[in-house]
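anyone seen this seq b4? input:
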Amino acid sequence: MTDTQPAAPVKGGVVAYLSVDGVLKAVEFYKRAFGAELAAMHPPDEKGRTMHAHLYINGSSVMLSDFYPEHGHPKVEPQGFSIVILTQNIDADYQRAVDAGAKATMPPAEMFWGDRYGQLKDPFGVTWAMNQGKG
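predicted toks r here
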């Protein structure tokens, strides 16, 4: 994305903005694992870091940035949150993510609230959950 191109529309009422170590690799992983579509991305700098990428995953926007310690944005491990993907086919979607390189941490199972639910950890340390409702 350059200053002369219009910004990609933001989808969803809440947008996750993830900091990862390796945006270019993360974009390719999220395409394989979750069927992400690249909406926009700034080109990498001389160190291979990307300050902004915008993806569409499951009808919502997810944005990414590499860490920039020299600008007060040091590398930290993700913690204290997960990103939930609502799905109609949890078993196939979960397996696609595992096949792409996600670590299965909680395989899909029937939950006490009546849905099928599972969790994975991506190669960048982010926990992703998948939920398939009954309806």
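The longest strand covers residues 103-110. The radius of gyration is 16 Å. kinda curious what u guys think
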